[in-house]
Automatic annotation (TrEMBL):
It comes from the Bacteria. Pfam families: ADH_N, ADH_zinc_N. GO terms for cellular component: cytoplasm. This is Zinc-type alcohol dehydrogenase-like protein. Belongs to the zinc-containing alcohol dehydrogenase family. Quinone oxidoreductase subfamily. SMART domains: PKS_ER. Homotetramer. The keyword ATP-binding does not apply. Keywords: Acetylation, Cytoplasm, Metal-binding, NADP, Oxidoreductase, RNA-binding, Zinc. It is found in: Cytoplasm. Signal peptide: none annotated. GO terms for molecular function: oxidoreductase activity; RNA binding; zinc ion binding. It comes from Chitinophaga arvensicola. The lineage of its organism: Bacteria, Pseudomonadati, Bacteroidota, Chitinophagia, Chitinophagales.
Length: 336
């Protein structure tokens, strides 16, 4: 099968920053599915791992990354019970295993969902990683429930991949009042399209939120930079509120700033369940099936915004360049 990977971490301008190569089609065992891939989407985790994972070494065999795929089940392992050959599936995979930048991939059925029937392969490929992240941070980490309907949530990075679907889920599933951040006219418009009630500029966060009519907010989701906004979060969060983050702070944050308000802080990493084979690993299968239903019935819409056709080194580099720019709106998908 054809795959695209890298042997060492290089800038995209370097010829070998990605390499196309041939390798064996893997055979599924246990609870693994062998999936023939139709489309993939690119996330910040892709370029972060490409930039940092092999900085000081050269691998003998290229590393295959990629987390977000849609495809068809070709074969199943001997313990598989959720899927059969021919099923269309979508998933975000496992960061500890070979990724989806290949024609075929092995993936544990417990972190796989049935592809939304109403969506194209490209539109479906845009969804798994970001939807899982948003769903888990809202409902598994902060534990938002029926009692929270009508409460306010501030989403930092509303036009990004996770922010886009988090706006939709917070508004249309959790019933929250959504304040999202964006600074460019096109990203402001995108956030409104996703369902944000209010869009504010992150460059003057406290004043922007208060000028929009919110002295404090019940929940805050950080999808950008915890260090940059930490003091603003501590000021804006309501007593007994909750803050959740997926970002990678470069410096420690002072949790004591939250103590007087009894505010809780929550980390979210979508890969945790697969990495640690947690007792509830199958929860991701059920979340993805739920997301598929919500996409099919029109409650949620795909956040696909850019499609690149063709599984080539040049196209994968282009997708990574778009993500590295930090200016992408919605999701970037590559079709096979």
């Amino acid at each position: 099968m054809k795959a695209i990977g890298f042997k060492t971490s290089l800038p995209l301008s370097e010829k070998d920053s990605f390499i196309a190569f041939e390798t064996e089609v893997p055979a599924p065992t246990g609870r693994d599915l062998l999936v023939k891939i139709k489309a993939i989407s690119i996330n910040p985790v892709d370029f972060k791992i490409r930039q940092n994972s092999t900085k000081d070494k050269v691998l003998d065999t290229p590393k295959i990354i990629g987390w977000d795929a849609v495809g068809v089940v070709e074969e199943v392992g001997n313990e598989v019970s959720l899927f059969k050959k021919g099923d269309e599936v979508f998933y975000a995979g496992d960061i500890t295993r070979s990724g989806c930048n290949a024609e075929y991939q092995l993936v544990d059925e417990r972190i796989v969902g049935s592809k939304p029937r109403s969506l194209s392969a490209a539109a479906a490929a845009a969804m798994p990683l970001t939807a899982l992240t948003a769903w888990e941070i809202l409902f598994d980490r902060i534990r938002i429930n029926e009692k929270d309907k009508g409460k306010s949530i501030l989403i930092i990075g509303g036009a990004g991949g996770v922010g886009s679907i988090a706006i939709q889920i917070a508004k249309k599933v959790a019933g929250l009042k959504v304040i999202a951040t964006a600074s460019r006219p096109e990203s402001v418009e995108w956030c409104k399209k996703q369902g944000a009630d209010v869009v504010v500029n992150h460059k003057d966060l406290v004043n922007e939120v208060r000028n929009a009519g919110f002295q404090q907010v019940d929940f805050i989701l950080d999808f950008v930079d915890l260090n940059q906004y930490w003091n603003a979060f501590a000021e804006l969060i309501k007593p007994q509120g909750s803050i959740g983050s997926i970002s990678d702070p470069t410096e420690p944050v002072n949790l004591r700033q939250l103590k007087s308000k009894s505010v809780s802080f929550h980390w979210e990493l979508m890969f945790t369940r697969a990495m640690f084979q947690t007792d509830d690993i199958s929860e991701q299968h059920y979340i993805l099936d739920n997301i598929a239903t919500l996409l099919d019935n029109g409650t949620l819409t795909s956040t696909l915004n850019t499609t690149i056709d063709g599984f080539t080194v040049e196209n994968l580099k282009q997708a990574h360049q778009l993500l590295e720019s930090g200016k992408t709106i919605g999701k970037v998908v590559l079709t096979y």
